[in-house]
Write a structure and sequence with these properties.
146 residues, alpha/beta, two-stranded antiparallel sheet, 2 helices
Length: 146
C-alpha cells in the first residue's frame, strides 16, 4: 500500500457540497491499495504511521507521534498514488481493483482507529474536494513495497 501523509493543523473532505470528514491537528493520509496488497500491508502501514514521530516535542524536534500529541487522522482514498508515469498520460493499472481497494481502505482505517487514533474518512470512489492547512510543511511518502 502507498500513503502520502501531510501533517496538518486542520483538514476536511467535501463530497457534493457536504463535509463528510474533518479533523483538527493530526494527519491527512491519502492512501492507495496496490495490486497484490492484502490485510497484512494495510496493518503494516497503519502501524508505521501510528508510530511515526513527525510532530514537534517541547524542544521543537520531530520526536512525537500523532498519538503522542492526541492528533487525529483524515483518511482519503487516492488511487492516483498508483500512477504509472512512463508516458505523458498516467496509467493506474498498478492500483488494486475497486472492490479490493475499498476493502483495504476500510481495513486500514479500522486498524488505525484500533491503534487509538481518532479517524475520519472520505468516501471511497467519490469525487472529493480536500482542504488542508499543512503544518511545517511536513509531507511524507510511504510504500509497504519499499
Amino acid at each position: 500500500m502507498r500513503a502520502l501523509l501531510q501533517r496538518v493543523t486542520q483538514a476536511s473532505v467535501t463530497v457534493e457540497g457536504a463535509v463528510v470528514g474533518q479533523i483538527g491537528a493530526g494527519l491527512l493520509i491519502l492512501v492507495c491499495a496496490m495490486q497484490g496488497d492484502g490485510a497484512a500491508q494495510a496493518d503494516q502501514l497503519a502501524a508505521k504511521i501510528a508510530k511515526l514521530r513527525i510532530f514537534k516535542d517541547a524542544g521543537g524536534k520531530m520526536n512525537l507521534s500523532v498519538k503522542d500529541v492526541a492528533g487525529a487522522a483524515l483518511v482519503v482514498s487516492q488511487f492516483t498514488l498508483a500512477a504509472d508515469l512512463r508516458g505523458n498520460r498516467p496509467g493506474f493499472s498498478p492500483a488494486a481493483d475497486p472492490e479490493t481497494g475499498n476493502r483495504l481502505y476500510q481495513h486500514f482505517s479500522a486498524t488505525l482507529a484500533a491503534l487509538g487514533i481518532p479517524v475520519a474518512n472520505g468516501i471511497f470512489g467519490a469525487d472529493m474536494a480536500v482542504s488542508l492547512v499543512n503544518d511545517g510543511p511536513v509531507t511524507i511518502w510511504l510504500d509497504t513495497a519499499v
